[in-house]
Amino acid sequence: MMIEFAGLQLSREELKEIHQALLQRAMVESELRRERGLEKAGSFPLLERIEAILGDKATEIEKTESALETELWEFAWYAFTDEWAWYRAAQEVEQETKAKRQELPETETKKLIESRYKKNFKKYVAEVDMREQRSKSLKIK
Questions:
Q1: d(CA 29, CA 22)
Q2: At what angle do helices 12-35 and 45-54 cross, to 10 degrees?
Q3: What integer is the mean pLDDT of 68-75?
Q4: 18 and 49 in contact (C-beta within 8 Å)?
Q5: What whole-number distance in Å separates Cα of residue 109 and Cα of residue 94?
């Protein structure tokens, strides 16, 4: 037997949390569609229905969108810099082992990369941190 409808009781805070999750999903989907050159996603009926139930003003929804956009940006930046730091650590370890003409087991190589990653993380992130580079260039002038 398949359920066609379901009832659910939520507090306002729980509904707001669901709203934020759906809004975040809609934001990501819209951005990915834009990046891929696809047409805009239509409406998001469930999101709109929850917004109607919450009865928040447009300004409140805009504040939520802005806060979520900031969170998504911070997550994207973290993911990018984390991957960059790992790549740079792997690159350095590979260069050193080639220079020494060493062949290390994969587990040992991963340990060296992890160690290098932890040791030089801030240095690697500084290589791509435009905010850091901008502030340095302003100090030089």
A1: 10
A2: 150
A3: 92
A4: no
A5: 8
